[in-house]
Amino acid sequence: MVSGEINSPLRHVTVLEEAHNILRNSQTEAATGSTLAAKSVEMLANAIAEMRTYGEGFIIADQSPNAVDIAAIRNTNTKIIMRLPDEADRQLAGKSAGMTNEQLIELAKLPKGVAVVYQNDWLEPVLCKIAHHQSSTEQQLYQYHPDSSTVVFDKTKWRRQAARLLLDHRLTLHSIIEPDAVEQGLAYASLSGASRIALKRHCDYYREHGELLAAKLNFAEIAPLASQLIDAPLIDFSQASKISEQLTHQIESQLRGGNELARQMTHCLFKAATLENRLDEANYIDWSKGERS
Which CATH number does the domain 12-129 belong to among 3.30.70.580, 3.40.50.300, 1.10.645.10, 3.40.50.2300? Predict the structure, then answer.
């Protein structure tokens, strides 16, 4: 979801059956929003409203609309209303679909298979007859068949590609930069949203200009982002000179991109540690001089 773009076409649909179990109407409580449950419902309703722009669709289904949070009902574009015997349900669902008071009464009389359908840009709701599905005598059970074309995420390869996107200008032996592969892997990488956005910016810049954005930035801006590409163990930075070689070896096992790239990633880890006040600046400078000598 994080890797999605604003105003994306429909990519996935989530069905919330018996929606009142997770989107319960909290208006009947003493103080709306004061309880943990009410706050949770509010957060879910807000999330549903925001995720639609990234291509996520929601089907909210319930036999009692009055039991569902009103915000969730308001945020739906298409409403399909079948027979509702309860007056409170008719008022809530019917008014949300722009029905008149006379039409609301008819909701209690709808025969099986007949529904009122309304979309937000329609002038008025429409009465529809839904065709009955004739199933075969043999029960058809759904079975999931995985897509054989599904891309297998190679974490080691992706880390290496992303590391080169950020650090290739600091290497003596340059490699082919693959911004498309890096961007595709963002959907699977274990990174924060801010880091994904930053890496995508590097990919876009390289595609547009044919050169590395990282080459124009200060090392202090690159190091924190690069250090997030690997699974770094808990490090005692007070022993910087002693653990450097071992750390480089561990990084190389995660990148498989050569010793020089691994050393640059080690440098990023130490620089990021100084920015987070986990390593004294003087010790970092001493370690850095030792690496260059």
Answer: 3.40.50.300
